[in-house]
Structures are given as C-alpha cells and as structure tokens.
Amino acid sequence: MVEVKLTVNDQEEAVFVDARDSLSDLLREKLQLTGMHVGCDHGACGACTVHLDGTPVRSCIVLAARCDGSKVRTIEGTRNDAMMDIVRRHFHEKHALQCGFCTPGMLMMSIDIISRYGVPSENQVRSELSGQICRCTGYMGIVAAIQAAAREINGNGDN
Amino acid sequence: MKPALFDYVRPESLEETLKALSASDEATVIAGGQSLLPMLNLRIASAETLVDISRLRELKTLSETETTLSIGALVTHAAIEDGLGRDAFNGLLQKIASKIAYRAVRNMGTIGGSLSLCDPSADWPVCLLALGASVAIASLEGERCLPMEDFLVDAYTTALEQGELLVRIDIPKQGDCAWGVSKVNRKSGAFADSLAIAILGTDRQPARVALGGTASCAQLLAATSALLGQHPDIGADALSSAIATDVAAAHEEATPYQMRCHIHTVTCAIAEARSWSR
After folding, report:
1. Which of A152, B53, B79, B141 is 20 to 30 Å apart from B161, CA to CA?
2. CB B118, CB B83: distance < 8 Å
3. Are A55 and B78 inside 8 Å of each other by CB?
4. Contact across the interface for A65 and B8, Cβ inside 8 Å
5. For B60-103, how does the pLDDT look when each residue is reduced to its tens digit (9 = 90+)?
6. CATH 3.40.50.150: does it fit domain A2-77?
C-alpha cells in the first residue's frame, strides 16, 4: 500500500491505495466521490475527467500514487462555482444531457475549454470535445450549451 | 479492467532513477502514462516495477543555444501546444502537439514518453525524424546521443537498453523552415492511419520527408527527400514515382487503402511545404 496525501475539493485527505489504483479508484472507492463516472477504464471515453493541479485529466489513466501532493477538483467541488453555475444552467436550457452519464466529464471539460478559448467557435468546441463521448448522441445540445455559456461569461466576441 | 499488480517507485532525482533502472531488468519507466496505463489496464502490457519519473523537474524544461533547441523528455504535449518553443520551426511543434489525442491526454502525455514507446502511428517520432533531431540517453555510465534514425528501431522498439532513460531531445535549428503536415485519421484525436511531414531544405539542412502509420516505426523517405534536395522544383511525375518507391519500401504488405493514405499524405505534406511563402 502507498500513502497518498492530496487536496480534493479544497479538503486535505490522506488515504492508502494500491500501487495499481487509479485516481478514479481513489476518488470513488476511498473518498466516495461518485459524481465522476468511469466509462471505459482505459482513457477512451472522457467520462472520468477531473482537474488535476488545475488542468483536466482522465482519472482512470492517472495513477493514484502519482497524485501525492497534488490538488484535485471533481464535479462535487464545483458547487457554487460562479462559472460552473452558468455552464450548468445552459446545459439544462439546451437539453445538453439525456442519460447524464457523460455529463460530469463534459462539464469539467467545458470550463477548461471556456477558460482557454474565451468565446470558442463551434468548430473549436467540437474539436475540443472530440475526446468526450456521449452515447445518447447529444452533441448538438452540448456544443450549443458551451457556446452560450462562453458568451454569457466572456462577452460576445467574434471568435 | 484493472492492471495486474506491480511495485511502484517514484524517485526524486535522475541519479536515483538511473539506479532503480539499472538494479532490475523488470523495471518499466512511466512518464505521463497516457499510453502505458491503458495498455496495463487492458493487460496487453505488464510491469513488475513502475519507475515513475514525473518528479524529475530537470526533464521538464526547454532550452536553446544558437544552433540547437533542446526539449526535456517530460515536457507535455499541452505545454508545447500552449506555446513552449512556438517560434522554433515556424510553429511546426505547436501544430503537431495540438493534434495529438485530446486535451486531457495532452496535459499528462510527454514528448519523451511518446518517443520511448515508439508507437508506429505516434506523431512525435515522425516530426522529430523529419527535423533531423537526436536524443540524449542517460545511464549510470553517462550520457550518449543518438540520431532519431538510429533511436527508432521498429514498432514499439527503440535503441534504449536496460538501465537507460531518454532525457532530452536536441533539434538542430534551421532558419526559415518551410514545412507541411498531412494526417489521415478516422476521428479527431485518433491515431493516424497515415501521417507525413515534409520539411524543405535550407542552407543548413537538406530536405527531409518522414512517414508514420506504417507497420514499423516512423520512416524517413530517402528517395523523395534526396530528389527534393537536389531538384527543389522537380515536377509531379518524377516526384510521384519517388514517393511510390519510398512508400512501398516503408510499409511492406500495405493494403491498398494504406497505400492510398500514405501516397496522399506524403503528396499533400510536400505540396503544403512548397506553398509556404518565404
């Protein structure tokens, strides 16, 4: 067993994990943070996306042991986040989810896209989302929601 | 699925890492882990001991001299996408980095990891082969340098030996560099069915065209490169025949689809490089 000390959603945690445990195992099994979903467990679907030290990663292909000393933010840590509140509202309004399995990963990716691009074009959103798979095929709503949220957060822009 | 059990060490220094690597012939280096962990999870690869090099800060830097750009093995694709080394090679590195897999993968995946795994369809081996780069390899005995042609041996096979670690990539600078990139993949971010990168010659470097997506590692297209070097304005007929010869040699027993992809990407990469306004 390996001891991992890390900060999750602004709370300091110390847990023991197996060397082979992934960050998604640590979050779901040790800390009961089940908001993030595990779809494929080999980095293909993007459902398990969380932020590690400020950037999105696929938590199923990051070793938990490696996260010692890191800061992790999961979907649970975005409650009352001003930016995420806006993104979430637009997901609701644009019907950007059906079964909701991919949604936590989509949301974590969305705020990263808006942070990096400001007001991204539809092509940019689609390209950036190519690693997030939605099996209800709800991409049109998701793309529209991210664009609308970006416009509300960062102004209209002509990007 | 979960990987089979393995031991895990996370050294704090290069020396400690090299000692761990030379102590056991069952040690596997893990950098960003974006290829290795999926392979372990799917159990198409196994490891006795993972040596996690992610704390080796000295491998995360980029430095340059008048003639050479040096990239540390742990520099991530995202760091290059976001502009590290942007001015070198007229933005070629940034273009390549931004098309590797997906952002969440690029945040973790490293240039040295991509080279060391040597996936036949990976982007960096093709790019660095076309740029005439070399790699610096460290071991307890010291450091050795190898040109990319000698480092890349075959699919998933490099010249790295037990106890060795790729620490740095050195790329010779070349004035105003005209390049072209063409990639065929079934979906944004997927591995390439074919990837060609053409770099036209300057007074410092001859023209070099490299191809990925073959059954082996990235390949330098010798006849095409030589022809472009000797006759920069060579016509389409002579060029296509050199491309066909090179592609057939680079990918033996390619299917008709693969041949068409390769001929397409090489032709497009050269055309794009030639369209560069100098």
Report:
1. B79
2. no
3. yes
4. yes
5. 999 999 999 999 999 999 999 999 988 889 999 999 999 999 99
6. no
Question: What is the number of alpha carbons within 13 Å of residue B196 lying toward its C-beta?
Answer: 28
Residues of A in contact with B78 (CB under 8 A): 55
As a residue count, chain B comes to 278
Among partner residues A61, A63, A68, which is closest to B38 by beta-carbon distance? A61
Percent of chain A scoring above 90 in pLDDT: 95
Euclidean distance between the first and the last CA atom of chain A, given in angstroms as a whole number:
49
DSSP letter at B278 equals: -
Query: For chain B, what is the radius of gyration of the CA atoms?
Result: 19
Chain segment B233-248, per-residue pLDDT in tens: 999 999 999 999 999 9
Interchain contact, B33 vs A63, CB within 8 Å: yes
Task: Please list the residue range(s) of chain A that carry CATH number 3.10.20.30.
Answer: 2-77
At B17-48, the pLDDT tens digits run 999 999 988 999 999 999 999 999 999 999 99
CATH assignment of A81-154, among 2.120.10.30, 2.30.30.240, 3.90.1580.10, 1.10.150.120: 1.10.150.120
Measure in Å the smallest separation between the Cα of B47 and chain A Cα atoms.
Answer: 10
Intervals of CATH 1.10.150.120 along chain A = 81-154
- Edge to edge, what strands does the sheet with A55-58 contain? A11-17, A2-8, A71-73, A49-52, A55-58
- Closest Cα of chain B to A113: distance in Å? 9
Residues A96 and A106 sit within 8 Å (Cβ to Cβ)? yes
Confidence band for A157, pLDDT divided at 50, 70 and 90: low
> Using CB atoms within 10 A of its CB, is residue B63 exposed (0-12), middle (13-18) or buried (19+)?
exposed
Nearest CA of chain B to the CA of A26: how many Å? Answer: 13
Under the banding of pLDDT at 50, 70 and 90, the label for residue B276 is confident
Beta bridge partners of B179: B199
Using the predicted structure, report yes or no on whether residue B278 has a pLDDT greater than 60.
no
Does the pTM of the predicted model rise above 0.90?
A: yes
Task: List the single residue in B with minimal CA-CA distance to A130.
Answer: B188
- Neighbouring CB atoms inside 10 A of B97's CB total 25
Opening angle at CA B93, ends B91 and B98, nearest 5: 95
